[in-house]
Structure formats: C-alpha cells, structure tokens
Amino acid sequence: GAVVSQHPSWVICKSGTSVKIECRSLDFQATTMFWYRQFPKQSLMLMATSNEGSKATYEQGVEKDKFLINHASLTLSTLTVTSAHPEDSSFYICSARRQGYEAFFGQGTRLTVV
Amino acid sequence: EDQVTQSPEALRLQEGESSSLNCSYTVSGLRGLFWYRQDPGKGPEFLFTLYSAGEEKEKERLKATLTKKESFLHITAPKPEDSATYLCAPRGTNAGKSTFGDGTTLTVKP
After folding, report:
1. Is A107 within 8 Å of chain B by CB?
2. What is the pLDDT of residues B5-31, one digit of tens each?
C-alpha cells in the first residue's frame, strides 16, 4: 500500500503558540489531502479537504483562520494550529489520496497544549 | 446528507469465535466503500475497497461484502491481534470525501 508520513507524532506546546504538522505522501502523488481530528473513543471528524495548489475547503464549524492548511505540492500538506489553546489538544490525522483511489492515512499527531 | 451507522459499537469475542460487523450507509452516488482498521493512538490502516453491490474482498481472516445499503466485515476464527477499531467509510459524489462511521471496537480474548 501507499505510504503517508505525518510529523511530528506528538507535540507539546504552550498556550498561545502555533504548531505546524506535516503530512507527506512518500511514494505517490496526492491530488487530495484530508485533515481530521479525533477525540478519545470517537470517530474521525473531517476538518478540511485540500487540493494541490488551491485553497482548502473547510467543514462547517472549523475555523479556517485558526487551522491553516497549505497544500503546496502533490506530496506535502501542512496544518498549522495558530494561537493554540488547551481545547485544541487532540489527535490530528491526515490522509492522502490519488485521483480515483482510496485514501491512506498518516500515523497521526498527538497535540497537547499546556 | 451522507450517513453511516456501524454496529455493534463494541464486540467481544473469544479467540476462534467468528462474527460479523455491520456498516449501514446512505450516500448519493456511491463511488466506493472503504474499510479501515485503527489501533489505539495510530492512524487508520487501509483494508478494503468495495465498489459495487455483490462485490467481496478477502484478506487473511477478514472478508468484506457490499450490498446497496450495507456492508459487512466478516471475521473468521479471529485472533487477539485482530483486536482494533474497524471503521467503514463510504464515499459518494459529495465533494469526493468519505463519511466515516463511529467504528466497531473489536476485542478478541485468548
């Protein structure tokens, strides 16, 4: 299967700072990347969909100014959590998909804001 | 709006005790239904894609089937290492994104 690498796997940051999470498709070109948030014992909540070279499409209720998504190339998308607060602490997961194929997921990033 | 319901929410089996997980869905123009396995603290791992009613896919002890309204993940003679949360995600024509169910958490006791 295709490999999607997400970095970092965990991060602790101070309240008010920003954190960047990277998602890379290692062996394929991803036309679309997705960012999810997952709370304990809950399913994946889609935050946004990004296509290479265009602005991300955010789901209802997701603050686009707080969760900045950049899909700069066919192999890289980044999620920046700006001015993080403790309520932003969560498990963030990206997935990448080629046109017409299934999506593959990264390992996830555990964000803790203190 | 696309909808997905997975049942049961949790399933506890003895090693070797076969069972099935259900995924009921309502989507506009099904483009594919995906099954994933997720271990705690990790991203989901892709298992299967099903595209049309009647299709079946197998991998080791797992077999996925699809009808027009639901999909089943059959687990034959499970082992403790099959313990995980299993997620289904149908994808319709709605902006090409998949809708994830809440998952079934499977625990297999030795």
Report:
1. yes
2. 999 999 999 999 999 999 999 988 888
